[in-house]
Amino acid sequence: MGLFNRFKSKEVLPKIDLSSFKVDMHSHLIPGIDDGSQSMDETIAMLAKFESFGYKKVITTPHIMSDFYRNTPEIILEGLEKVKQTAKRLNLKIEIDAAAEYYFDETLIEKLEKKERLLTFGDNYVLFEFSFHVEPPQIDKLLFELLSQGYKPVLAHFERYMFLLNTPEKAKEWREMGINIQMNFNSLGGHYGPEIQKQAEWLVDNKQIDFVSTDCHRMDHLLILEKNLVNPYFHKLLELDLKNGDLLR
């Protein structure tokens, strides 16, 4: 074997076409109401980037978290309307909608027990998240309440929860119950660390993902995504039966 062949670099894959995913359903683009965009200029720049990627629609999902981001459906929808009006004035073509990312704390169970209507997207999907580091109590109760009230729960960024790193098969168990699993693109590129990347790769290899999204808080997240479009696992995503495209209907 010649010296050249011994050190021949690996084949570089082409960049994937993000337009294949059609809809991003997890982002933080309404200015000033959570830890995402802090100005309308920033929001419009990110929406323009989504449009340049070929996305047809963005469903932005501000945090609802009792201790930090006390958003309400009214606050979110009012902010959404301002974003839509500005985007229209600037001739952006991308469709913009909003739901919420509900943090699982005591107030979420209360909302469900009181039958308060949650902000949903698509076919009654509701996005929720856990604490990253500590397993919350009453997960089974939360999932039962969501399902029994006719919601289609979507667990945000499954791969990022430290208490699930050694039990990735929990994704399969929950999906069999009717829970949808969402994964962040940038988890596959190592943005959140090697353990999170390994968990994300497991989800792809075992086809345990329903939605893949940016979880975009700022332009950096989209630029990191753009740099990783040759990642082999991004190519594998194209082989999965994801539900992103269904959200255009």
Q: Can you describe this structure?
A:
With 249 residues, the chain is an alpha/beta fold. It has one domain: Metal-dependent hydrolases (TIM Barrel, Alpha-Beta Barrel). The protein contains nine helices and nine strands. The protein has a six-stranded parallel β-sheet, with helices on one face. Strands 1-2-4 form a three-stranded parallel β-sheet, covered by helices on one side. Helix 4 runs parallel beside helix 5. The termini are far apart.
Please give the CATH architecture.
Alpha-Beta Barrel
The largest β sheet comes out as: 6 strands, parallel
Whole-Å distance between the termini?
A: 55 Å
**Could you give the order of strands across the largest sheet?**
3-5-6-7-8-9
The overall pLDDT average reads 95
CATH topology tier name: TIM Barrel
Structural class call reads alpha/beta
Q: State the CATH superfamily name.
A: Metal-dependent hydrolases
Q: What count of structural domains?
A: 1
Q: What general form does the structure show?
A: globular
Query: Which oligomeric state applies?
Result: single chain
Give the DSSP E fraction (strand runs of 2 or more residues): 5-15%
Percent range for helical residues? 25-40%
How many β strands by DSSP? 9
In the predicted model, the low-confidence regions spanning at least 5 consecutive residues are: 3-8
Rg (CA only): 19 Å
What is the CATH C level class, in words?
A: Alpha Beta
What is the element string, with H for helices and E for strands? HEHEEHEEHEHEHEHEHH
The number of helical segments is 9
